[in-house]
Amino acid sequence: MKDKPFLAVLLSLGLLILIMGLVSHASFNRALSQRRERLYELKLLRRSVQYHMTPTYLAALLLLLIGLGALVSILWRLVQ
Q: Is 43 helix (H, G, I), strand (E, B) or coil?
């Protein structure tokens, strides 16, 4: 029982780092798409390219959901 608060803190820290990485990845992809769209409008690219969700990004989202579920479980057990 003594280690559960420590586990919750470690899990929260890991989730925070994961969220920061996901936000950074999403903003980078958004900026890259905007840049490619500008190049397409200037006729410097032959066709417009749409980026899709990568498997790595999807795995990170799933890991985030699992981590949030684990954190809720730990916090629920601490309250009881």
A: coil
Domains identified in the chain, total number: 1
Instruction: Please check whether residue 37 is in contact with residue 79, taking contact to mean a CB–CB distance below 8 angstroms.
Output: no
Show the domain range for 64: 3-79
Rounded to whole angstroms, the Cα distance separating 36 from 17 reads: 28
- pLDDT by residue for the chain (80 residues), tens digit each? 678 899 999 999 999 999 999 999 999 999 998 999 999 999 898 887 777 888 999 999 999 999 999 999 999 999 98
Kindly report the pTM of this predicted structure: 0.84
